[in-house]
Specification:
With 290 residues, the protein is mostly beta strands. It has one domain: TolB, C-terminal domain (Neuraminidase), CATH 2.120.10.30. The chain is built from no helices and 24 strands. Strands 1-24-23-22 form a four-stranded antiparallel β-sheet, with no helix packed on it. A hairpin with a 3-residue loop joins strand 19 and strand 20.
């Protein structure tokens, strides 16, 4: 194992959703509140930033080329050349107090994404699944802030979080994407843990969870036992993903938002992009099948 490394010193307001794009040997990630998408090239350390006229809240590469993502109201195809979005399904366009948040594609090529209440008080958020034929299903509800999701190795369990409730759930998933048997996987009960945010799963079926307000990422066993906690030099850790040709490095996003003005000088790297080699590999990042 190694120490956490600074990859890109940048004051992202709400860095989120790191995405490994194998074909480009690069990691993409979003800064939701700045309407930016960043790209870090692993081969040469090259850095690229695109600024859109709208918030991109999550991102996936497509099997047929190009990108799909979530914007405030729903799913859209994204064009980085002209910085545009072609809407696909906007299920919450009539809910101005909600927005889409985190999302990820499972190994069957389906894009799961959740919504949140902007004021962070009402359980108005839902979890959606976009299939390859671009049909959409609302699969779960009663979330204040949806985060995650992530999936186990055989795509039979979906892990999903409500950050405000400080709870990570596990749900059984059938071959068609149907969910059942929702149960609590882990809860954050101490103030120093912050709240659970984005997650990923490694090749041993363990779950790595980012702690927003907790200055760490934690590795859980499939049974929900804490196996390892990795400290970071900033408080608000938002998500992580495995990347690289060997899938042996975790890339970690953070946020500068949510830090009290009096504390900002303590955390000059808040919002920056980090990496960590945990001594275990990750799973391949699926492409959206549509």
């Amino acid at each position: 194992m190694s120490e956490v490394q600074l990859v890109w010193e940048i004051p992202a307001i709400l860095g989120e959703g790191p995405l490994w794009v194998e074909a480009e040997n690069a990691v993409y990630w979003v800064d939701i509140f700045s309407s930016k998408v960043h790209r870090y090239a692993l081969a040469d350390g090259g850095k690229t930033t695109w600024t859109f006229d709208f918030e991109v809240t999550s991102l996936s590469a497509r099997a047929g080329g190009g990108f799909i993502g979530t914007i405030a109201d729903g799913y859209a195809f994204l064009n980085f050349d002209v910085l545009s979005a072609q809407p696909i399904m906007l299920p919450e366009a009539d809910m101005p107090d909600n927005r889409f948040n985190d999302g990820k594609v499972d190994s069957s090529g389906r894009y799961w994404a959740g919504t949140m209440h902007i004021g962070q008080t009402a359980a108005s958020g839902s979890l959606y699944r976009l299939d390859a034929d671009l049909s959409l299903e609302r699969c779960d509800s009663d979330y204040i802030i949806c985060n995650g999701p992530t999936f186990n190795k055989d795509n039979s369990i979906l892990y999903h979080t409500d950050s405000i409730k400080k709870t990570i759930y596990a749900l059984d998933m059938d071959a068609g994407g149907g969910l059942s048997n929702k149960r609590v996987f882990a809860e954050f009960t101490r103030a120093d843990e912050g709240v659970p945010d984005g997650m990923t799963v490694d090749s041993e079926d363990c779950i790595w969870v980012a702690h927003f307000g907790g200055a760490r990422i934690t590795r859980y066993s499939p049974a929900g036992e804490i196996l390892e906690a990795v400290p970071l030099p900033v408080p608000n850790i938002t998500s992580c993903t495995f990347a690289g040709t060997a899938l042996d490095t975790l890339y970690i996003t953070t946020a500068s938002t949510g830090i009290a003005a009096a504390d900002k000088a303590k955390y000059p790297l808040a919002g920056s992009f980090f990496s960590y080699q945990p001594g275990v590999t990750g799973l391949p990042t699926p492409l959206f099948a549509g």
